[in-house]
Design a protein that fits this description.
The protein is of the alpha+beta class. It has one domain: Glutaredoxin, CATH 3.40.30. It has seven helices and five strands.
């Protein structure tokens, strides 16, 4: 069955998580791939995911600072493109490792390293197929008051201070305490039903 182009459903960054998808604590970062600070904090996030394994989930949202980093926009689009094949996190890490080499042709090579198979990957990048998803992230970041990168939120609350391991871990612990489910009262047993005679 053939699909019209309009019927293609794009997996958006707001739908992509790593960690426990049912976790009560969500760590969200607004960042971009050319930023040295974002690259450093990516290593901190990996440690946090290990430390709080099963207790948190992490989401990366795109906030390319194109006035400073001209290649950050296409790098973000390439991560969204990789997400369509379930390779977002692989591409995310490859982009940070190669943050000084993010030209469009290089992005195609990085996508192969991340395991992306899409033959139209380069065409999609050139044509800006995933540009809207990156713009949506950018708008959301602006609406949330993001001014510098990286900026973190935990359960939609802005994390104040420098995004160090200690600061983020403390904020996560605080959020975990708040999100602990209250102990439930034991459920009452229903009285057994009596069979009605016909």
């Amino acid at each position: 069955m053939a699909f019209k182009k309009d019927d293609i459903i794009i997996i958006e960054p707001r739908e992509i998580f790593v960690g426990n998808k049912d976790a009560t604590v969500t760590l969200m970062e607004f960042g971009e791939y050319e930023s040295e600070e974002c690259a450093k904090v990516n290593e901190i996030v990996k440690q946090l995911l290990e430390e709080f394994d099963g207790k948190i989930r992490f989401q990366f949202r795109h906030f390319p600072l194109t006035l400073i980093h001209q290649r950050s926009l296409k790098a973000s689009e390439s991560a969204v493109a990789a997400a369509q094949e379930g390779k977002f996190w692989e591409m995310h890490n490859v982009l940070f490792q190669n943050r000084r080499n993010l030209g469009t042709t290089s992005l195609k090579l990085h996508s192969k390293e991340a395991g992306v198979k899409n033959k139209k990957f380069l065409d999609d990048l050139v044509n800006g197929v995933y540009g809207w998803q990156v713009q949506d992230d950018l708008k959301e970041g602006i609406n949330r008051g993001v001014k510098e990168l990286p900026t973190f939120f935990i359960n939609d609350q802005l994390v104040a201070g420098k995004p160090t391991y200690a600061n983020l871990a403390a904020a996560i612990n605080e959020a975990l305490k708040k999100s602990k489910p209250k102990a439930k009262a034991p459920a009452k047993k229903a009285a057994p039903r009596q069979k009605q005679r016909a």
